[in-house]
Amino acid sequence: MSDSTELPFLIFGSPLIEEAEIDEVVACMRSAWLGTGPRVARFEREFAAYQGLRAEQVAAVNSCTAALHVSMVAAKLEPGSEVITTPLTFCASVNAIIHAGLTPRLADIDPRTQNLDPAAVAAAITPRTRAILPVHFAGRPCDMAALTALAQTHGLTVIEDCAHAIETEIDGRKAGSFGDFGCFSFYATKNVVTGEGGMIVGRDTALIARARVLALHGMSKDAWHRFGDKGYKHYQVVEAGFKYNMMDLQAAIGIHQLARVKKNWQRRAQIWQQYMQAFADLPIGLPAAPAPHTRHAYHLFTIQVEREACGIARDEFLDAMNRLRIGTGVHYLSVPEHPYYQERFGWRAEMWPHAMRAGRGTVSLPLSPKLSDGDVERVIAATRSVILGRH
Ligand SMILES: Cc1ncc(COP(=O)(O)O)c(C=O)c1O
Question: Which of 143, 164, 135 lies closest to 265 in space, CA to CA?
Fold first, then answer.
């Protein structure tokens, strides 16, 4: 492991792109219909079928952030209402709450599962609480039985952040179907990619219809229905909406990515098991075993590197892996570590100690289905050598 400069850099989260999506993008370009049109409609139908939903129960958008924002606007929560979420998430979960004119409140995670602790959520509920926004962190399902019970008792809307959770299930039921809304991401590193992209799902077709209108300026008809071969159709602006629609160019990628969702999941599951075995004897924290009767989406493989246990600090570990030409990620420094939230809400990381500790020690190792067996061996060898001090 001394001289690794000649090794290719292993990019963290690099997606597996195959010929089918390349050909579909080319076909889309040749059709010259790049914006929202027939390919988005097909992607919506196929995503709905994958989720066991009807096409009217999904709406494609251009990111999960947009999906979260539009869901909260569509839910008509009164301005200033509080929405409880986790500190161990991407800033988008919290920013979407703020942009919807609502107030984020954090509840700590269960340190074992790294998901929202329902007891902490219960303790964070106030008379102004109107919604819970659980994040299925790394693809592991949250305790939706406990969270939906709390929501029912207190009359709260539930918006599931399913950015990591396309394949996630509890008792055969898909993540995104427990709450009022489920919001998915097709960002470049996600389990199904469209470059940028997202999807809103929900049982209530009226709410999804509203979300769809809000995602395109509040217009009653999209371009495909205005300029299609049925003749020009007037539209009406019925709300002040946003510019959040997905393009056919993006859907062209997603259609074929979705067709391989199971195959890619199986490959990540295999890599996950290899990592679990290869690291069992190391003094690092490993992900908790998936709960019985659930399916983990295996989106992120996160280890915990703490100086007291490993003799090396997390950031030193990141640097050492980089020197070995292995890209890693950090998911996430807890939200209250960031200055904006400290200044605006007076938050301090110490207020949610489990998320703080997880965020300060966590490292995500590569888990893309694109990894070859040799790549996986490189990640394993590098991790072991850095932790065992032989790098
Ligand atoms: C937990 C979580 N929520 C929301 C998002 C936002 O997704 P997008 O990039 O599609 O807006 C991400 C993306 O990284 C995420 O990881």
Answer: 164
**How many Å apart are CA 290 and CA 136, to the nearest integer?**
12
Counting ligand 1 atoms within 8 A of each CB, the residue from 68, 72, 85, 90 with the most, and so the one to mutate, is: 90
Classified as helix, coil or strand, 267 is helix
Please tell me the pTM assigned to this model.
0.96
- Contact criterion met (CB below 8 Å) for 116 and 86: yes
Residue 245: name the closest of 289, 273, 212 by CA: 212
What rounded mean pLDDT belongs to the chain? 96
- Rounded CA separation 7/12 (Å): 15
Residues 6+ apart with CB under 8 A from 82: 102, 103, 104, 105, 126, 128, 129, 130, 131
Q: Which atom of ligand 1 is nearest to the CA of 187?
A: 10
Ligand 1 atom closest to the Cα of residue 196 is 10
* Tens digits of residue pLDDT in 243-271: 999 999 999 999 999 999 999 999 999 99
Residues labelled catalytic: 190
Question: What confidence tens digit (pLDDT) does each residue in 363-373 have?
Answer: 999 999 999 99
Q: How far is the CA of 283 from the centre of ligand 1 (A)?
A: 30
Residue 358 CA to its chain's centroid (Å): 18
Residues with CB under 6 A from ligand 1: 63-65, 89-90, 92-93, 135, 161, 163-164, 185, 187, 198
DSSP 8-state code for residue 217: T
- Answer whether 153's CB lies under 8 Å from 125's CB: no
